[in-house]
Amino acid sequence: MGTEERLAGGFGFPLGCVAVVAAVIAAKLASAHPGYAVVAVALAVGAVAVITTPLAAGGVTAVGWSVLSGFGYGRAGTLVFTAATGWVAVILAGAAGFGLVAGAGWRAVRRDRPVIAEAVVPVPRRAVESGHRRVASL
């Protein structure tokens, strides 16, 4: 699988991790309800999945779930395995899948179509007619 018009996994994964942490911090500062953090992280995961490789999108999804499970639903980074965090995993996986499909569709639309060049044959030029004839001198 090529990385045409995508961020390579080496750059997409760290970018996604920063986006996930920033989304969680912003959502936690705005509200104490973890549902807002899930929406913010799902948007970040989906946006990263559009512009990066599937491997990096999967890694960002795992990091997003870990951050939400550890700091959104749990305390002090302790991972919590409950039905709520299971739904968070499903939501983040769906956001990543949607982002990957949307990114592939966008790249397919933007892909340059091959141009078929037609052979252009120029029209023969007419000889220039001068008003006088030149005589070659020896």
Brief rundown of the structure:
The protein is an all-alpha fold and 138 residues long. The chain contains 4 helices and no strands. It has one domain (9-110).
SSE pattern? HHHH
How many runs of DSSP E, i.e. beta strands? 0
Outline, from the CA principal axes?
rod-shaped
The tally of domains stands at: 1
What's the overall average pLDDT, rounded? 83
Description of the structure:
- The chain has helices at about 10-30, 35-50, 55-75, 85-110.
- The longest helix has 28 residues, at about 85-110.
- The chain has 4 helices and no strands.
- The protein has one domain.
- By secondary structure, the chain is an all-alpha fold.
- Keywords: Membrane, Transmembrane, Transmembrane helix.
Blueprint of the fold:
Layout: H1 9-30, H2 34-51, H3 54-73, H4 83-110
Helix pairs in contact: 1-2, 1-3, 2-3, 2-4, 3-4
